């Protein structure tokens, strides 16, 4: 674990511990110090500030726990417009930073094949971190996924899209993002 990741961990220890508890195979390891925990939380950054949208003012918490070549990621969103209840939004880890008003800055999805130099990459929920969520009547959303890779560090983002993710990984316009750096 890097120093910065450790500092973040102390502020969100409860979340991180609950994430670890969801990974019994990982938690049972005798060498817990090898786990990498990445957390991010805060108000979403608006990628289309000129228009009002259901995610305006929403917040999110992202937790990713990695070890032994796999990663479990969770996304919790709150403060979504309740008129969006029942709607599913696509969400993914993207390679680039989360910049207000600039959806393109987030770049493409983080893809483990691309990171390994494999061309063409496979595009699915095992090579990318997909976190689509459906809005509850209370304006919250939750998603989790486990993938067989550990993303490389960087200034990255979780991007939330207008549509659910289709089998090719497309999910329509980019509405909002959460910065995730480690
Ligand atoms: Cu995306």
Description:
By secondary structure, the protein is α+β, with helices and mostly antiparallel strands. It contains 4 helices and 10 strands; from the N terminus they run αααββββββαββββ. It has a single domain (3-181), classed as Sandwich (Immunoglobulin-like). The protein has helices at residues 3-11, 13-21, 24-27, 112-115, and strands spanning 36-43, 45-46, 59-67, 70-78, 88-89, 91-94, 133-134, 141-147, 155-161, 174-181. The strands form 3 sheets. Strands 1-3-4-8 form a 4-stranded antiparallel β-sheet. The chain is globular. Mean pLDDT is 88; it is low at 1-14 and 23-29. It binds copper (II) ion. Residues 92, 94, 109, 159, 161, 171 line the site of copper (II) ion (CU).
Question: Please, how many domains?
Answer: 1
Task: Output mean pLDDT.
Answer: 88
> Tell me about the biggest sheet?
4 strands, antiparallel
Strand-pairing-aware structural class: alpha+beta
Please give the CATH class.
Mainly Beta
How many distinct helices?
4
CA distance, first residue to last residue:
10 Å
CATH architecture assignment: Sandwich
Please name the defining characteristics of this protein.
disordered N terminus; SOD-like_Cu/Zn_dom_sf; Cu/Zn superoxide dismutase; alpha+beta; SOD_Cu_Zn_dom; 182 residues; binds copper (II) ion
